[in-house]
Design brief:
The complex is a heterodimer. Chain A has one domain: P-loop containing nucleotide triphosphate hydrolases (Rossmann fold, 3-Layer(aba) Sandwich), CATH 3.40.50. The longest helix of chain A has 15 residues. The radius of gyration of chain A is 19 Å and the shape is globular. Chain A contains eleven helices and ten strands. Chain A is an alpha/beta fold. In chain A, helix 3 runs parallel beside helix 6 and helix 5 packs antiparallel against helix 6. In chain A, helix 7 links the parallel strand 7 and strand 8. Chain B has one domain. By secondary structure, chain B is mainly alpha-helical. In chain B, helix 2 packs across helix 12, helix 3 packs across helix 10 and helix 7 runs antiparallel to helix 10. Chain B is 72% helix and 2% strand. The radius of gyration of chain B is 22 Å and the shape is globular. Classes of the chains: A alpha/beta, B mainly alpha.
Chain lengths: 256, 370
């Protein structure tokens, strides 16, 4: 039996901040090409988990491997990015003083070296690529505006566009639907669904259960609670799991 | 609108270049512009080059370095060593080595002084020494992710430490007197009007070249990354850029620019000593840049010239009040003119617009905070 390759495998990961155990004995596997949704109440360690994958913080214990080959716990943020791991932050994090177009130029896949940056110019393929992305994220008309002047939802889209420009193998998407209208949310879901496949694996963190239903479509959903995996399974199964009900609804569930 | 402003700036720079490189020297040669005016303006231009280097660090990369006066002085010292060698045996003691070495009991030239007899070597050192110091310091500071005010304090400490070192006589660099009484440069009397005119033209050309280089740098992808580091360094790391390398590159380039400015400054003012690398000098440059307009390339030039012209006048007319005036000006600019002098036209236009259409203001803010 040939083992499937994991895009991310985390084993026995622990991380505490000033005595607060944010991640506790976390073990998590995700297949190449998978679209996985992670849900969990506030403080469950969802964002900390992304911080650990992207090198923003280092675990106290445990290992996190990418493609069964790279130990992410020993690498810096930009080295991890260069492996093809891109991240959309919870609060939209774009370069506010740069134009929308410049934001995408900065994110476009390619060399990141100092000396190359002095003499690199966009070629026509890259220009077309940026135009395509601008169309996809509905910002063609705003390409010369400063990103800081965009509406909240537009910033979210721009940041997703930056992930597209990077052409990441693993996309880590933290609450993409926050602050979006229902229509925008549905469109974001469609975009993520269209991306998932052999070329991109996607890890989405989300609160909005309608959105989770839309993108999971029977795929595996992981519930995090107090820093470790509470249960995994299709969204319907997970929503009816007693432990999940207790965690989310607390005493009410027990009383009922 | 933006390209329009660029065009205006380009025209201003072209006119300034013609005035500085051709017109002023020609008028000086014809006797219309005095030698004194030329020497004062030569000094201002050196300061302007220095101010651009500070702005490239502070305004464009977000690195508030208080070490630029150190690199300025290092470049000056390298040039000063050559000028000291060119005195030959015309010093007070009529010996073939600089006077202060005779005074310290030296019979022969210390080994590290020997190659400075060559102007080419000295000019290479003007570039190499600041670059080496900046590379070493920058590598350690940026690798350890020292940022913000901590970086400023560290550069200040570096400058202070260096000044203490240069004050010592056993550094064999003239101690607190430094170098002065220069006599010859390229075989010509360094104080002669013709030599000073040549130095003035050289300074003007370097200023225009540095301006052009920085203008080009800001249009490259490097410039984009540089400003991204300023606004959101953490995000830059998550876009795959090793921010430390970008900062190190800018830091070294700016050290070199400051060093060249110092090397041009010393033969024009005729003296270099450790007081040039004291903290207040670095702080003064910050004020020039803030007053002129941070994050623009014309701003630091305007700031350096305006503040130093003001200083020349004030230190004669009201010597006791100068520091108060400087501090007051800085506070005024920070409070009311965030874009400095060069940002004033846009600021006034904005104010007039708001006065005319108060309703437009309301929609503006509404659009900004959705």
């Amino acid at each position: 039996m040939s083992r499937k390759q994991f895009i991310i495998s985390a084993e026995g990961v622990n991380k505490s901040f000033d005595g607060f155990q944010a991640i506790r004995e976390l073990t998590f596997y995700m297949d190449v090409g998978e679209l996985r949704t992670v849900i969990g109440p506030n403080g469950a360690g969802k964002t900390t988990f992304l911080d650990l994958i992207t090198g923003r913080t280092k675990p106290d214990e445990g290992k996190i491997d990418f493609m069964d080959a790279h130990d992410l716990t020993r690498m810096s943020e930009y080295e991890i990015y260069r492996l093809g791991i891109g991240r959309k932050f919870q609060t939209p994090t774009v370069y506010t003083d740069h134009t929308v177009h410049e934001n995408l130029v900065l994110s476009l896949e390619g060399s990141r070296g100092v000396f190359r940056s002095l003499f690199s110019r966009l070629n026509s393929t890259e220009r077309d690529r940026i135009e395509d992305i601008l169309k996809t994220i509905n910002l063609s008309a705003h390409s010369q505006r400063k990103a800081g002047a965009l509406a909240h939802g537009q910033k979210q889209w721009l940041e997703i566009g930056m992930l597209l420009a990077q052409n990441a193998r693993l996309l880590l998407v933290d609450e993409p639907a926050a602050g979006m209208t229902d229509e925008e949310t549905a469109k974001t879901g469609d975009l993520l669904l269209s991306l998932a496949g052999d070329k991109h694996s996607i890890l989405v963190i989300e609160h909005d259960m309608t959105f989770v239903r839309q993108i999971s479509q029977g795929r595996k959903v992981t519930v995090l609670h107090q820093g470790h995996v509470l249960c995994e399974g299709p969204v319907d199964e997970v929503q009816n799991d007693e432990r999940v009900l207790e965690v989310y609804l607390g005493r009410k569930a027990r009383a009922a | 609108m933006k390209s329009n402003r660029n065009k205006i700036e380009l025209i201003i720079v072209a006119i300034a270049a013609v005035i500085l490189i051709v017109l002023l020297p020609a008028l000086n040669a014809a006797g219309v512009v005095s030698n004194f005016t030329m020497s004062v303006w030569g000094k201002y231009l050196c300061y302007a080059i220095l101010a651009i280097s500070v702005d490239l660090l502070w305004g464009y990369t977000g690195l508030l370095s208080l070490g630029q006066s150190l690199f300025f002085a290092l470049g000056g010292y390298m040039m000063g060593m050559h000028l000291m060698r060119m005195i030959g045996d015309l010093g007070q003691y009529k010996k073939p080595i600089p006077d202060f070495l005779v005074f310290l009991g030296w019979e022969q030239l210390p080994a590290f002084w020997v190659p400075f007899s060559s102007l080419v070597f000295s000019m290479l050192m003007v570039i190499a020494l600041p670059a080496i110091v900046a590379t070493g310091f920058g590598y350690l500071a940026f690798r350890s992710r020292i940022k913000g005010v901590y970086f400023s304090i560290l550069t200040q400490a570096l400058t202070y430490g260096a000044a203490l070192m240069f004050f010592r006589n056993d550094m064999l660099l003239g101690g607190n007197n430094g170098f002065t009484d220069f006599k010859f440069l390229l075989g010509a009397d360094v104080r002669a009007a013709g030599t000073q005119r040549g130095l003035f033209i050289a300074t003007a050309i370097v200023l225009i070249a540095v301006y052009g280089f920085c203008r080009w740098l800001t249009t490259t992808k490097f410039g984009l990354v540089q400003r991204a580091v300023r606004d959101s360094e953490t995000r830059v790391l998550f876009s795959g850029y090793a921010a430390a390398n970008y900062k190190l590159f800018v830091f070294v380039i700016c050290a070199i620019i400051a060093g060249v400015a110092g090397a041009l400054y010393v033969p024009q003012v005729g003296i270099i000593n450790p007081s040039e690398m004291q903290t207040d000098k670095s702080l003064e440059i910050i004020v020039w840049v803030a007053v002129g307009g941070r994050g623009t390339l014309l701003g630091p030039v305007v700031g350096a010239v305006v503040i130093n012209a003001l200083k020349s006048w004030a230190t004669r007319a009201y010597p006791d009040l100068w520091l108060l005036m400087l501090g007051g000006l800085f506070i005024l600019v920070v409070l009311f003119m965030p874009k400095g002098i060069v940002g004033l036209p846009a600021q006034i236009r904005g104010l007039l617009k708001r006065k005319q259409t108060p309703s437009a203001l309301a929609t503006d803010t509404a659009a900004a905070t959705p």
